[in-house]
Amino acid sequence: MEKKSSSVGILRYFAVIFYDSLLLFSVLFLATAIAYPITNGKVNFMFQAYLLAVSFFYFAWSWVNGGQTLGMKAWRVRLVTSDDEPISLRHCLLRFSISILSWLIFGIGFIWAFFNRQHRTWHDLISNTHLIIL
Predict the structure, then answer these.
(1) How far apart are CA 15 and CA 85, in angstroms?
(2) Which residues, at least 6 apart from 133, have a Cβ–Cβ distance to it below 8 Å?
(3) Which range marks the domain in which residue 106 is found?
(4) pTM for this structure?
(5) pLDDT per residue over 68-110, tens digit each?
């Protein structure tokens, strides 16, 4: 039987982010190596959009198929909706987009978790999702 907690502690939340960042870096490194012969090493808008799409695919695939990235599995955390519905691509797109916005404005959407009672970030609140401990 699965043990579910209503919220994930701040330290665990940021440990998952750190772990997934390392994994995403590896995925983006491989994606860059694949694209290098095509781009001749030049960075342009299409290349950046390609890397953004690869990043989205890494997270969306994991969230839709089981609710966990590799970092989440390592820290025994799962993404769920607040309504107990399956994670949809809409949830993924909202969560991914708002998390990027949060990083772009100096991580304020992530810092919000320190002040939110359930430790929910902006992308948790807007996508109607949250992390639970397994």
Answers:
(1) 26
(2) 3, 4, 5, 8, 12, 76, 77
(3) 10-133
(4) 0.85
(5) 999 999 999 999 998 878 899 999 999 999 999 999 999 999 8
The tally of domains found in the chain comes to 1
For residues 4 and 126, the model is more confident at: 126
Neighbours of 130 (CB within 10 A): 19
User: Judging by beta carbons within 10 Å of its beta carbon (0-12, 13-18, 19+), is residue 74 exposed, middle or buried?
Assistant: middle
Q: Considering the domain boundaries, does residue 65 fall inside one?
A: yes
β-bridge mates for residue 132, sequence order:
78
Burial 38-71 (b: 16+ CB within 10 A, else e): eeeeeeeeebeebbeebbbebbbebbeeebbbbb
Within-domain flag for 4: no
Q: Is residue 75 part of a domain?
A: yes
